[in-house]
Design a protein that fits this description.
3 domains, seven-stranded antiparallel beta sheet, 1 helix
């Protein structure tokens, strides 16, 4: 009889646990909408810390499920630490930024990287790839290859829907341009003070979706030779009163970027002033 009651009790408990699938830790009453409810006043949640080797790493964690969340410790070859989730094809880094890349007043971000895009260090994300795009006056694909395209929404050169691309020019020349990543026109005014050429003024410019701006640099020649270092200081205003200040500097420690011995370094900083 006791054995029968024990078996019945086990079956009943299994049925109850199977129906009540939400678990509470630190609380006897987990929220019914949560499968796991953590409650504490002096502790945090510590996820698995994994050393990923790339954004497509499926060796460290075989067959990762879509939505799987880990903290990349940076001990593998994917050096950028942070929270990553598997989106079904790659490890994507979590970001708290919105899709426009807007910064808070006083917030500043910066990068330093070597052309054609091997990052040395940064205060933001390091997602990047090479691309082609359209200039403001063109309807077809341009032949120049962008040396860097920052694609993660929290990256420094993406702000208010504009992305900073650095296009390749002739010899040791780079051509920085703003690119409209949105589906609407963006009106922006900017002026550039350069160490190597005249002032560039572009008031009330309308950049249509998926097109580039006019030149940021005064003569559209950002020099990168080993004998000529150039800096562009760009003041950027939007109709809603937002005010940004960007600095772009480039130099080469040995030769022009388009040679095999290239070691051209580009530094970019962006600060929201108002």
């Amino acid at each position: 009889m006791k054995k029968t009651l024990f078996l019945l009790g086990s079956v009943f408990s299994s049925m109850v646990l199977g129906q009540n699938t939400n678990v509470g830790i630190g609380t006897p009453h987990p929220d019914s909408s949560a499968i796991l409810d953590l409650s504490t006043s002096n502790k945090g949640f510590l996820p698995p810390r994994i050393g990923l080797n790339s954004t497509t790493d499926v060796i460290t964690i075989p067959n990762p499920a879509t939505g799987l969340l880990v903290f990349n410790s940076g001990t593998g070859t994917l050096a950028t630490k942070g929270y990553y989730y598997w989106d079904g094809a790659k490890w994507a880094r979590l970001s708290i930024a919105d899709g426009s890349g807007s910064l808070q007043v006083g917030e500043e971000r910066g990068y330093r990287f070597v052309v054609p895009g091997t990052f040395q260090n940064s205060s933001g994300n390091t997602n990047k790839n090479q691309m082609t795009g359209r200039a403001a006056t063109q309807t077809g694909t341009i032949q120049r290859k962008a040396l860097s395209e920052f694609v993660n929404i929290s990256d420094l050169p993406l702000f208010e829907g504009l992305r900073l691309d650095v296009l390749g020019g002739e010899n040791n020349i780079l051509r920085p341009r703003f690119y409209n990543t949105t589906m609407s026109n963006i009106v922006v005014s900017y002026t550039t003070l350069s160490t190597s050429n005249p002032l560039q003024n572009s008031p009330n410019m309308t950049i249509i979706p998926n097109y580039y701006s006019t030149p940021i640099d005064g003569d559209d020649w950002l020099n990168t030779s080993d004998t000529n270092m150039e800096q562009d200081l760009v003041e950027i205003l939007f109709p809603d009163g937002k005010y940004y200040r960007m600095s772009i500097v480039a130099y080469s420690t040995n030769s022009a970027y388009d040679t095999t011995a290239s070691n051209t370094v580009i530094g970019i900083s962006l600060k929201r002033v108002q």
